[in-house]
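To make this tangible, we now present a fold written out as tokens:
***
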Amino acid sequence: MRLLTVCFALTLALLSTTTLLAQKPTRMLTNSQPFTIDAGLACAFPLHGEPLIDQEVTKTFPPEPNGDVKQIVTGRLVFELSNLDTGKSLVVNISGPGFFVFHPDGSISADFGGRSGPVTFFPTDIPPGPKAFINSGRVVVDITPTGQIILVSQSGHEEDVCAALS
């Protein structure tokens, strides 16, 4: 009987440890991708972004009881942003960090700190674009399940990417 009790206790301990281990956050390289935004959406011209240095890491936490999944993105990220009509470009350090909460309904809450961007607002967003900027400070946005971006708050210095590349 004593052996059975010890085996039961060890099994419970092993299961508890496995559960705790499964609840640790995961870390992986972010692997930022090039992008192109059509003319009239973020700027009057087509805007292209190309990662030059991508040393960002995304830490993803286990789902909370309400289903929210939190991510933190940190590390060095340098992009070249280009006006595809003129070829004019600029190199920006947009290393963030970024904090994200993915909600079960498909919406996302995003909080960008430090130097971040390009933050883009399309004509259907709130406030309506076209607008693209690099922010030094803090930008908080909500993204609806349909992809509409809603500005919640912004502080710090804003650099107009469209003006810089015109």
